[in-house]
Design goal:
Number of helices: 6
Shape: rod-shaped
Helix content: 55-70%
Radius of gyration: 28 Å
Oligomer: single chain
Number of strands: 0
Number of domains: 2
Distance between the termini: 93 Å
Order of helices and strands: HHHHHH
Structural class: mainly alpha
């Protein structure tokens, strides 16, 4: 083997190592998005943008369900497939003056305003159908 062949072999090896760096890092870190990172790296790693995206995602922390004591809430940045969001139920708080005295009745105008706000929450997807029905019934009882 002559010097030119050896130097070409070294250059090709270094290029392949740099190209696969994001996938190698994700594999070593046992990243939950390893397959996604491998696909991004393999398909788009030839572009600088694809390689940087794969590298950033490989280096980014992710919440894991299987880790004892790990956080069970919140978004994990670029980790689109391992977000561990929790569904939270909305419960109507008792209305009052802070002294434990509940308002005896709602005026029709106040009830309409509360029902409109409740409908907006339901339309936006912040509350489910069951919560919507429970809170609507509570508002109607106060009239």
């Amino acid at each position: 083997m002559n010097d030119d062949t050896a130097s070409i072999l070294v250059v090709v090896t270094v290029c392949i190592a740099i190209y696969g760096l994001p996938s190698f890092i994700a594999f070593l870190r046992r990243h939950p998005n390893f397959w996604v990172i491998l696909a991004i790296n393999g398909l788009f790693g030839g572009t600088l943008v694809g390689w940087v995206v794969a590298l950033v995602q490989a280096l980014h922390a992710a919440h894991r369900w299987d880790t004892p004591g790990a956080s069970q809430g919140g978004e994990s940045g670029l980790n689109l497939f391992v977000n561990d969001t929790r569904q939270v139920a909305l419960v109507a708080a008792p209305h009052g003056d802070g002294g434990g005295h509940v308002r005896p009745n709602l005026s029709p105008a106040a009830a309409v305003r509360e029902l409109e706000c409740l409908a907006d929450l339901r339309t936006a997807g912040h509350i489910g159908e069951i919560e919507h029905r429970m809170i609507t019934a509570s508002i109607l009882r106060k009239m």
